Amino acid sequence: MNANIGLTNQSATPDFNRLARMYLWMELLTFGPWLERCRFAFVSDFGACRNALILGDGDGRFTARLLKTNPFIHVDAVDASPAMLFELLRRAGTENARVDIHPADARNFNFPGSQYDLIATHFFLDCLTTDEIASLVRRLRSRIAPEALWVVSEFAVPPNSFGRLVARPLVGCLYRIFGVLTGLTIRGLPDYPAIFLQSGFVPILKRSMLAGLIVSEIWSVNTCLAKQTSNLDGNLLL
Ligand SMILES: C[S@@+](CC[C@H](N)C(=O)[O-])C[C@H]1O[C@@H](n2cnc3c(N)ncnc32)[C@H](O)[C@@H]1O
């Protein structure tokens, strides 16, 4: 049984069930291929990982791709929406034998693994407050392997006129729409980078798209890895 170990007074869990089957189409109609590009930005870089924890996995597009590119990985997929998890299993096809689904609120779920070497949160941290992310990271810290990677895709508001005039209003509009559709009560992007840094994670790679409106990042607690990758060219800076 999963004891309630999250924050007290937490908001109601948003309900994405109604959106599960149309989620892909909603995304394609609004952002075309860009969110998918963001989600898959680093998916082929996780060949050495064996135990993944995917939070707010949604309809499983990242998981299905991860299982295809890595034939040895096992996935614990946590999502509050059973309908999303159903889509995930369907999408993963025969590879779904390597997936354990957990229909639960990640804010107070007792994670089953103890040596995750990959955590993935694609457009999920924005469903949490900064305090909820701090609590989540604290609970996960003891459950990850020393070489673990955390891949994040998120919306962002760049600190420039595009951010002020376009990104911020657009993100605000998305929050209001998802508030109506799912009951999500959050109305602003959380400061997850601050929490990650405070918790000993270091940024390894970052790719920005759509003028910085969406970002894909890899974080790690392995500082040696951070030093190695900071010398590489291309994609990466933080
Ligand atoms: C915006 S969708 C993103 C889905 C997917 N990761 C993607 O890249 O498209 C957010 C997902 O997180 C799930 N979710 C939101 N809050 C949650 C929570 N507190 N615990 C578990 N899942 C949650 C929703 O059910 C939904 O599937």
User: CATH homologous superfamily name?
Assistant: Vaccinia Virus protein VP39
Strand content: 15-25%
Largest sheet: 7 strands, mixed
State the end-to-end distance: 40 Å
- Give every kind of bound small molecule, once each: S-adenosylmethionine
The percent of residues in helical segments reads: 25-40%
Computed over alpha carbons, the radius of gyration is: 17 Å
CATH topology: Rossmann fold
Number of strands: 7
Supply the key terms.
single chain, alpha/beta, Rossmann fold, seven-stranded mixed β-sheet, 7 strands, binds S-adenosylmethionine
What does this structure look like?
The chain is α/β, with parallel strands linked by helices. It has one domain: 3-Layer(aba) Sandwich (Rossmann fold). Helix content is 35%, strand content 21%. The protein contains eight helices and seven strands; from the N terminus they run ααβαβαββαβααββα. The chain has helices spanning 23-31, 34-39, 61-69, 82-92, 130-141, 161-182, 192-198, 223-229; strands spanning 51-55, 74-79, 99-103, 116-122, 144-155, 202-209, 214-220. Strands 3-2-1-4-5-7-6 form a seven-stranded mixed sheet. The radius of gyration is 17 Å and the shape is globular. 37% of the residues are buried. Residues 231-238 have low confidence and may be disordered. The structure holds S-adenosylmethionine.
